[in-house]
Design goal:
single chain, alpha+beta, 3-stranded antiparallel beta sheet, 3 strands, 12% strand
Length: 168
């Protein structure tokens, strides 16, 4: 007597399908990771190229874009576009890795300066008068000269009965 004769080998087929599905998911995750890594590499190259172009912007657009191209090439990218307007540079860099070729645009230039603080016209405000040597709010008690607030205590020789502690 055989049990379940019609289902013999079904677990092997399901295991094979599950293994294939896991391989497809694993391949998709690897491809997505590669796409993200290439995009980040292109972004970093574009940022550095824009900074290099902005650094050389005052020397002319040709020199600025040449510097941007050298920096992009050092980062494993190619410079697609470069434009310099005044002291501001805008570049586009591309990195090609496998089927992925993202292009990233970056801008660099001097920051906008904050407005200066307002000027105060007229004399500076008067300072409060200096305080007394005693701590404010504490009553002064007689004590050691120069240290306000300390109680007056007799000296050690007088406490023992004489100038030398009771010895005549």
């Amino acid at each position: 007597m055989r049990r379940g004769g019609a289902d013999r080998g079904a677990a092997s087929v399901w295991t094979a399908f599950a293994a294939c599905a896991l391989c497809v998911v694993f391949g998709a995750v690897l491809a997505l990771g590669q796409a993200v890594a290439v995009r980040h590499r292109a972004g970093g190259a574009a940022d550095l190229a824009a900074l290099a172009a902005a650094d050389r912007a005052l020397w002319g657009e040709a020199e600025a874009c040449a510097a941007a191209g050298r920096v992009a090439a050092a980062q494993g990218a190619e410079l697609v576009r470069c434009r310099v307007a005044g002291a501001e540079a805008e570049v586009t860099a591309r990195v090609v890795r496998g089927p992925f070729a993202p292009e990233v645009r970056a801008r660099a230039g001097p920051g906008h300066l904050a407005p200066p603080p307002p000027r105060i016209l007229g004399p500076p405000p008067a300072l409060p008068p200096p305080e007394s040597p005693a701590m404010p709010g504490t009553p002064e008690t007689p004590g050691t000269p120069g240290i306000p607030g300390t109680p007056k205590t007799p000296g050690l020789p007088e406490a023992l009965g004489g100038p030398l502690g009771g010895v005549p």
